[in-house]
Amino acid sequence: FFFQAEDGIRDYKVTGVQTCALPIFLKSLPPGAAPDIQVALVAMSPSGAVRAMLGGRSYSAARSFNRATQASRQPGSAFKPFVYLAALEAGFTPATMVIDQPVSYGRWKPGNFSKRNEGEMPLSQALAKSINSVAVQLCLQLGPQTVVDVARRMGILSTLKPLPAIALGASEVSVIELDRKSTRLNSSHLVISYAVFCLKKK
Q: Counting Cβ atoms within 10 Å, is residue 176 exposed (0-12), middle (13-18) or buried (19+)?
């Protein structure tokens, strides 16, 4: 697939990915899905080259509003890697034992998707299972501002509130910011997304 190609970018690679993105999305919709369901997608290479972008189902319907870059929504569990990276930087290791247990902060009592707690487990397992209680405990232990600072270094530019709920992705971000996060975590260097690959004078 074009996503795995080297960074020797050619027009047909960009066009190929962009052309197939929307049909793949439409094919994935369940039968009878509402016609106004929208889409936001960014396919980015490790260097930050934007190979494909969908800002909505159609340009005319969106009226030039690009949901991939202009819309913000809560990222949920996609934000948790920032919490775990902050923990690793603070001295935790993948083998550090953590406890999946009920946790509360004032009136807020976040639970796991499974509605149950599994007790002691390695940090790596808590991340793999996306355990909410562990992410919140780590955030409280390290400090929400520490998590915000890590997210900033990873390329998140939106306003982030340093509250415990940030561990579960309560602050809104854009799709392209999350894509930069994934690229940054996988490549270990800051990635600036770009869409213009070259300009040629005729």
A: buried
